[in-house]
């Protein structure tokens, strides 16, 4: 099989629907109660869900950003449990078709080579979840979010959508809070440093489906960890919805690298909310790539709460025909001597729309803060679009703030020069694109960097629809 065909098969294939339990499309109080009952949740979580549902109904659809008028919540299936064992500890316990899906995505191979633990979610449920024994012995908790709610209820209750992402933030956060299912829970004890990353992969297989995984990571004082998320979905005609939530708590002196590679099918609305609270001397690193989807609205947010806290945001987005990537970063400097760096790259082709949307806020007491924002956009033709919409608010004059933005097209002079050195026009174009995205790609986990390069090669050839 050619590489192009293998990549298409990797991301676009789908399995027949086989469910233990599946709700009918639509959202109401009975749906929320059924989700909570099926999971055997404590009463406080059911009440939390019902409160969020009420807020969801009261909130308006966001008017800024991408057009969401063709997303019809009444047509979405909010909960579907595959016919598989939950949180299997061996791949032999995973049904063959589901196991083959994750094999195509390279998950078992990556687990063997360099991961400290891996979890895989298929529709609404984790079907495989395992952590290395030596990591567990250090006191590290790595669980499916549903399991964590049962095993560590007080810890979950303290952090789950309380301090980091409030359920009133916007309409789709409230929706997530009402119907969330599965995801990842990580706790790293004080002074523990993980040399190998933990990984989760979220896969949507059901048509017209909504996936709402919740990621909650807590790094205690002076600990270090790296976490990788991969996301993709089968290709269908009917729209799908992804509205996950990521809450990261980076305590004093801790360091977390969060990497994500999202490649949803081009009928998916990706409305993901991600936020980190970083305390004194803490460091958060966001490495994100957004491919696929019909619409993406994703803005990782760093709340630099403690003195000397730091946030690095590196991101890349690609928009092809009928795709809109409305992505960016939000950073709040809330303490003195805090630092942030944003490097954003985007590519648009065949009428695709890319947009950097960012917020940089420096509080009155955040003296001597430093921030640099750099946004670079590459348009491949005359019908694509790219915008930069930064909001910068600085409450005092003893900080250093810089913002740069460039938008450009590949010049014919560059193409001609490379072709004169023996390259074809396609090879010349690919070389320029690879050079453009290289600063971001080199920071991605190796398997995602390789696949990202191959996916962009396909897009440059016009091979993926």
Give the structure's gist in a few sentences:
With 465 residues, the chain is of the alpha/beta class. 26% of the residues lie in helices and 37% in strands.
Number of domains: 2
How much of the residues is beta strand, in percent? Answer: 35-45%
Computed CA radius of gyration, to the nearest angstrom: 21 Å
Unreliable residue stretches: 1-8
- Describe the largest sheet: 13 strands, mixed
Which class best fits the helix and strand makeup?
alpha/beta
Total helices: the number is: 12
**Average pLDDT reading:** 89
Distance between the termini: 19 Å
How many beta-strand elements?
25
Helix content: 25-40%
* Coarse shape: globular
Would you kindly provide a written description of the structure presented here, covering whatever features stand out?
With 465 residues, the chain is of the alpha/beta class. The chain has 2 domains: 8-298, no CATH class; 412-465, no CATH class. Helices cover 26% and strands 37% of the residues. The strands form 3 sheets. Strands 5, 6, 8, 9, 11, 12, 14, 15, 17, 18, 20, 22 and 24 form a 13-stranded mixed β-sheet that branches. It has a 10-stranded mixed β-sheet with strand order 4-3-7-10-13-16-19-21-23-25.
């Amino acid at each position: 099989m050619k590489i192009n065909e293998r990549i298409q098969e990797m991301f676009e294939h789908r399995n027949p629907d086989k469910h233990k339990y599946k709700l009918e499309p639509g959202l109401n109080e009975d749906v929320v109660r059924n989700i909570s009952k099926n999971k055997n949740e404590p009463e406080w979580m059911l009440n939390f869900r019902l409160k969020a549902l009420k807020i969801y109904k009261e909130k308006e659809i966001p008017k800024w950003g991408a057009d969401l008028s063709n997303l019809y919540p009444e047509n979405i299936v909010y909960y579907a449990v595959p016919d598989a064992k939950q949180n299997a500890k061996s791949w032999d316990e995973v049904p063959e078709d589901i196991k083959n899906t994750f094999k195509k995505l390279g998950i078992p191979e990556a687990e063997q080579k360099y991961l400290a633990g891996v979890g895989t979610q298929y529709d609404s449920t984790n079907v495989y979840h395992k952590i290395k024994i030596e990591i567990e012995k250090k006191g590290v908790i790595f669980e499916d979010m549903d399991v964590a709610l049962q095993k560590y209820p007080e810890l979950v209750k303290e952090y789950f959508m309380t301090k980091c992402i409030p359920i009133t933030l916007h309409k789709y956060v409230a929706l997530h809070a009402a119907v969330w299912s599965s995801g990842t829970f990580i706790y790293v004890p004080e002074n523990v440093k993980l040399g190998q990353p933990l990984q989760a992969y979220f896969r949507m297989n059901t048509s017209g489906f909504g996936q709402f995984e919740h990621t909650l990571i807590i790094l205690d004082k002076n600990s270090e960890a790296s976490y990788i998320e991969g996301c993709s979905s089968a290709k269908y005609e009917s729209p799908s919805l992804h509205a996950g939530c990521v809450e990261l708590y980076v305590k004093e002196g801790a360091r977390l690298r969060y990497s994500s590679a999202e490649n949803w099918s081009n009928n998916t609305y990706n409305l993901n909310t991600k936020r980190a609270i970083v305390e004194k001397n803490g460091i958060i690193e966001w490495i994100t790539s957004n491919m696929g989807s019909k619409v993406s609205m994703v803005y990782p947010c760093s709340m630099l709460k403690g003195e000397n806290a730091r946030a690095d945001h590196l991101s890349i987005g690609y928009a092809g025909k009928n795709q809109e990537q409305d992505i960016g970063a939000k950073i709040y400097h809330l303490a003195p001597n805090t630092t942030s760096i944003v490097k954003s790259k985007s590519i648009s082709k065949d009428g695709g729309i890319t947009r950097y949307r960012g917020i940089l806020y420096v509080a009155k007491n955040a003296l001597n803060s430093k921030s640099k924002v750099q946004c670079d956009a590459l348009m491949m033709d005359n019908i694509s679009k790219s915008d930069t919409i930064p909001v910068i608010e600085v409450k005092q004059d003893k900080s250093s703030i810089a913002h740069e933005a460039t938008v450009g097209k590949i010049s014919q002079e560059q193409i001609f020069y490379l072709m004169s050195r023996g390259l074809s026009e396609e090879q010349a174009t690919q070389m320029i694109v690879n050079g453009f995205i290289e600063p971001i790609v080199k920071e991605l986990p190796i398997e995602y960097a390789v696949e990202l390069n191959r996916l962009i090669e396909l897009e440059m050839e016009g091979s993926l629809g």
